[in-house]
């Protein structure tokens, strides 16, 4: 979105192409193509054509298609890591349920603000070393959230009739699905979005005396 | 999973290959490969190799890769349509919130029972006529659910501080995310899964006097 100071500061090593073409624009367009057509189906030639530049101009900024994917996934992962870290520091010493809720809202902000990169992150399936490394880093972030869920459940602040790991999955499910429908600049600002998701989730997840009986009754259904 | 009576009843038109190879096994393996490697990256040769048969044996059952994708998407769509229809008939005359909840639970059952086909359905991006037709049918099913949400909200049975279309997205998000984590045969039977998701969602979505004030306070956050 912003112009890239590094690109301007680095003299073009490849005189052909358009070395001054904004690194950021190359990355944004690559992410867009990877999402629309898939990573495998997108070539550096496609990317250059979409940008209206030569392949050299693309290679000036990124040595390979994998480097573009890696940069996109790094962006999403670094945003999520930083948000989880900041939420953790901001709520140091508070109850786990407060820390969890703050972390979920921070994650929603990152998703809403980095939709294309996060969309790519959520779609990787481990088909390459770059993808597997990203999945490993994502798992590490997810594990921190899952640990908070287990602590909040152990402290009695989450309903006891649902396994804490299932609770984590339900939270991830609702939060991650944002990438399929949320569009920034629409009627729902990111702050309202974060507050809405957090409210719906944590009202649904609070300890509820009736819930155990209800779930048990359904669970006994012999179908 | 079951053997295919049609395959046995249809004499092999292609003497080479193994025409008797189970149509159902071909479809299951194709769905598995499409999910693991992606549709574009999977060839009929890959599929035949995975099955240990000739390409002719595959073509005996399906004329093309697109026909395999179409059969997989049909399976998911027909399951979902039938479930939504059955839930609608079973709750005819009841409040919209009851009809909605029954429909959501029926959808969870279909997802849990048809995970691979539904996974493919949720991944299609409209890259071909087959995919676009499936997306159109899926939209039709989603629209029925969204209409129930709007009716239940209008009847005062869902919280009034969240736009009904956002509520629909949150429901779809949590339900559809099953394909990323739920595994049949594990500790959580499909009935308990449906009851859990339904309970967490609809407890979180009930009219809540405090919720409006809470969301408004967060929405005013100037970030």
From TrEMBL, chains A, B:
Q: Which organism is it from?
A: Promicromonospora aerolata
**Source lineage:** Bacteria, Bacillati, Actinomycetota, Actinomycetes, Micrococcales
Recorded hits in Pfam families, A to Z, give: TetR_C_24, TetR_N
Is DNA-binding there in the keyword field? yes
- What protein does this entry describe? TetR/AcrR family transcriptional regulator
Top-level taxon in the UniProt lineage: Bacteria
The residue ranges marked as DNA-binding region are 43-62
Keyword Acetylation part of the UniProt annotation: no
Positions of the HTH tetR-type domain: 20-80
Under InterPro entries, the record lists: Homeodomain-like_sf (IPR009057), HTH-type_TetR-like_transc_reg (IPR050109), HTH_TetR (IPR001647), KstR2_TetR_C (IPR041490), Tet_transcr_reg_TetR-rel_C_sf (IPR036271)
Stretches for region Disordered: 1-21
UniProt keyword annotations, A-Z: DNA-binding, Transcription, Transcription regulation
């Amino acid at each position: 979105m912003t112009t890239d100071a590094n690109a301007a500061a680095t003299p073009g090593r490849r005189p052909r192409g358009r070395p001054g073409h904004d690194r950021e624009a190359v990355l944004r367009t690559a992410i867009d193509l990877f999402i629309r057509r898939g990573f495998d189906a997108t070539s550096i030639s496609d990317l250059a054509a979409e940008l209206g530049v030569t392949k050299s101009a693309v290679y000036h900024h990124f040595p390979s298609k994998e480097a573009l994917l890696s940069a996109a996934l790094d962006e999403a992962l670094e945003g999520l890591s930083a948000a989880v870290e900041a939420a953790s520091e901001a709520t140091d010493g508070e109850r786990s349920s407060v820390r969890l809720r703050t972390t979920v809202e921070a994650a929603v902000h990152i998703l809403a603000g980095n939709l294309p990169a996060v969309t790519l992150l959520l779609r990787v399936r481990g088909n390459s070393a770059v993808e597997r490394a990203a999945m490993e880093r994502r798992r590490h972030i997810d594990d921190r959230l899952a640990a908070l869920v287990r602590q909040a459940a152990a402290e009695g602040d989450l309903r006891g009739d649902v396994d804490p790991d299932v609770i984590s999955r339900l939270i991830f499910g609702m939060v991650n699905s944002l990438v399929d429908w949320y569009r920034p600049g629409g009627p729902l600002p990111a702050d309202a979005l974060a507050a809405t998701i957090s409210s719906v989730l944590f009202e649904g997840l609070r300890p509820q005396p009736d819930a155990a009986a209800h779930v048990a009754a359904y669970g006994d259904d012999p179908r």
